[in-house]
């Protein structure tokens, strides 16, 4: 992102040493029309809850205290509702949410706080809902302004009182990192969590949500399966299930769905006696005791799966076990609707299997802009723990293949795509679960590519966190010197560079580059890729000679390994158009470098990302050479393409527009140049803040235009 050449930045009147973004493109992609409309988790007005509770039993005291907190006259409160997994915290929050927007006249905002990526995406969607514009949101996603500050500024300014639910905040450190949890006079915050330690929730009102009383637990079973037994029988079964709402829901769903040979509650109780205890892990909660009701979850779903087998629905069991390999977060249904699922169950039977799970409340459909399946974390942990060892390799391999197919095969630059972020927790879950080296390596490859895809939409923070976590998880099993671990570390360094953390980026990329050259050789594609990233950092920190030497070596290596027409080779050469001095750019490659855009058109097509970047950098070179009219015509076409493809606030679009303003002034069209530059300054002040170096530089250029001090370069 930057001032004139693609993605560059220069202080004062220094040269710009950055190239056209780091797209690792290997095929042609055409983009036309307006930027794609974002989809996915930006829908914060709807709770990410599949089926709401039919009746909420025994939560009168909890709800009354919460209702008092969301009355119009009371704001600035934080309420934390904590308890074991499966106790109904989300159901309580959902009921309060509906009452607040219905009876209380509040704006309801629902955000998953299960992981950093989900939290950031949801909170930025809250900011958008409360009035933040595209430029501000883009800068926050790019890590160029504090995202939490932006969100809470708009929550504080909200003209309507609001209720914000932060659901499943089982890792409170995620909220603390970035100061996401705050108070505001504009509304009320409700947090659901398994973590009860008060030091995580300073200043909040904490309330425990436990299992249900015997009578209310029995009513839950009667609500769900009214014809299966008497209230006394229901009370007995409820007691056997530990009165845990999740176990009661699963049992009631099972009993209500039996048609040909319906079970009574007495029959269900006998089968509970015959079942084996299933160990499960409730992450984030206290350790299980021998009589802990969470142990009963395993028995509850196992009886349901036994019934599936008896009815010839073994695919439902296979699908639930497959879902247990993923995270307890919304999983887009498109991930499951792929041929790769045949490794576990026939794709043609997936619909039937999913309907069976939905009927038994073993999973739910949630619509957050994308239709997803979501199962409770306690249930998934229980299923995963009870899965036979001989079934796990096929499940792991299939889950990894499904994820791999869902991630773009060749990530390209484009507008923000929130649906990509939805895949992050599932990819990281696979890296935690998978044990065998081959599927683990495949999972690491897919997650690293997912990081690249996030990076190329401008979501640099998510890209950094994803690549960093993937590298850490991969290193535990594969070792620090494994090729794929080093590749993930390299992507971490590239994201750090985009975040403006140059010192960290240089240190990491230099370390990775040296290791790759030592292990794989200097002409290895991964080593060359890290070298390209490293020269970007060197150029932006003023070490021009080192950057040129490294970029020339990368270009030569890519030409030898990939050929002259490969996109990566062409992209490396494009970088030289910006990095070299005007005198050197004319003589480089015996003068062939200045014809690079036409070579890109022939090899890649006119709309390829690398082609557009080459035109952008070529226009900069022409401007530096004093060829103002050709430079103006070329950068005008590039600016229009970027604006159409990425939107007017994208860093690429603003960089091209700033260069266009320069060429306009150089061609004698001062008023037009000032108008263009005024717009750039306004967008950067709005998106990055007035003190950001890019904004400062743009404001200086505009001041020079107005004062007549800006002199076009002369050769």
From TrEMBL:
Q: Where are the residues of the annotated region Disordered?
A: 26-49
| Record field: transmembrane | none
Q: Domain of life of the organism in this record?
A: Bacteria
Q: What is this protein called?
A: Tetratricopeptide repeat protein
Q: Organism, per UniProt?
A: Streptomyces graminearus
């Amino acid at each position: 992102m930057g001032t004139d050449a693609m993605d560059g930045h220069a202080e004062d009147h220094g040269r710009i040493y950055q190239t056209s973004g780091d797209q690792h493109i290997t095929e042609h992609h055409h983009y036309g029309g307006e930027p794609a409309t974002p989809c996915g988790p930006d829908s914060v007005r709807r709770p990410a809850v599949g089926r709401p509770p039919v009746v909420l039993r025994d939560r009168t005291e909890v709800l009354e205290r919460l209702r008092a907190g969301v009355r119009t006259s009371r704001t600035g409160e934080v309420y934390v509702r904590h308890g074991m997994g499966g106790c109904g915290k989300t159901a309580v929050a959902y009921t309060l949410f509906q009452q607040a927007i219905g009876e209380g006249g509040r704006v309801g905002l629902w955000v998953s706080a299960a992981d950093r990526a989900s939290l950031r995406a949801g909170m930025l969607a809250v900011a958008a809902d409360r009035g933040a514009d595209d430029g501000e949101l883009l800068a926050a996603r790019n890590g160029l302004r504090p995202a939490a500050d932006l969100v809470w500024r708009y929550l504080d300014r909200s003209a309507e009182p609001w209720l914000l639910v932060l659901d499943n905040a089982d890792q409170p450190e995620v909220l603390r990192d970035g100061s996401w949890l705050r108070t505001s006079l504009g509304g009320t915050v409700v947090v659901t969590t398994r973590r009860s330690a008060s030091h995580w929730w300073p200043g909040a009102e904490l309330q425990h949500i436990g299992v249900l009383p015997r009578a209310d637990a029995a009513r839950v079973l009667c609500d769900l399966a009214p014809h299966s037994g008497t209230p006394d029988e229901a009370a007995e079964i409820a007691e056997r299930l530990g009165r845990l709402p999740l176990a009661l829901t699963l049992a009631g769903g099972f009993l209500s769905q039996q048609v040909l040979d319906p079970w009574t509650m007495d029959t269900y109780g006998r089968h509970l006696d015959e079942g084996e205890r299933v160990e499960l892990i409730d992450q984030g909660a206290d350790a299980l005791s021998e009589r802990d009701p969470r142990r009963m979850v395993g028995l509850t779903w196992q009886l349901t799966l036994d019934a599936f087998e008896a009815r010839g629905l073994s695919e439902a069991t296979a699908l639930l076990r497959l879902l247990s390999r993923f995270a307890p977060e919304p999983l887009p249904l498109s991930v499951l609707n792929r041929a790769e699922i045949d490794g576990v169950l026939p794709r043609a039977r997936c619909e039937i299997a999913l309907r069976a799970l939905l009927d038994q409340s073993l999973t739910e459909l949630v619509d957050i802009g994308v239709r997803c399946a979501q199962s409770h974390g306690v249930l998934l942990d229980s299923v995963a723990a009870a899965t036979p060892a001989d079934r796990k390799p096929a499940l792991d391999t299939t889950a990894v293949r499904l994820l791999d197919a869902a991630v773009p095969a060749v990530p390209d630059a484009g507008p923000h795509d929130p649906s990509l972020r939805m895949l992050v927790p599932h990819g990281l879950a696979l890296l935690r679960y998978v044990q065998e080296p081959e599927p683990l390596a495949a999972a690491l490859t897919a997650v690293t590519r997912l990081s690249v895809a996030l990076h190329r939409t401008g979501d640099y923070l998510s890209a950094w966190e994803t690549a960093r976590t993937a590298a850490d998880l991969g290193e535990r099993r594969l070792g620090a010197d494994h090729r794929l671990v080093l590749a993930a570390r390299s992507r971490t360094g590239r994201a750090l560079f985009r975040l403006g953390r140059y010192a960290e980026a240089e240190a990491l990329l230099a370390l990775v580059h040296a290791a790759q050259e030592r292990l794989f050789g200097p002409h290895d594609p991964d080593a060359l890729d890290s070298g390209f990233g490293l020269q970007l950092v060197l150029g932006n920190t003023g070490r021009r000679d080192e950057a040129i030497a490294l970029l020339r070596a990368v270009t030569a290596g890519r030409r030898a390994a990939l050929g002259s027409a490969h996109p990566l080779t062409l992209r490396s050469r494009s970088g030289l158009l910006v990095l070299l001095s005007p005198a050197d750019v004319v003589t480089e490659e015996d003068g062939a470098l200045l014809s690079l855009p036409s070579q890109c058109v022939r090899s890649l097509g006119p709309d390829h990302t690398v082609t557009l970047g080459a035109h952008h950098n070529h226009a900069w070179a022409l401007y530096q050479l004093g060829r103002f009219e050709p430079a103006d015509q070329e950068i005008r076409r590039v600016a229009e393409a970027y604006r159409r493809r990425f939107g007017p606030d994208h860093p690429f679009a603003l960089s091209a527009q700033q260069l266009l303003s320069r060429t306009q002034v150089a061609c004698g069209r001062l008023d037009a140049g000032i108008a263009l530059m005024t717009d750039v300054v306004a967008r950067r002040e709005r998106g990055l803040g007035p003190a950001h170096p890019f904004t400062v530089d743009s404001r200086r250029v505009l001041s020079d235009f107005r004062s007549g001090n800006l002199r076009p370069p002369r050769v």
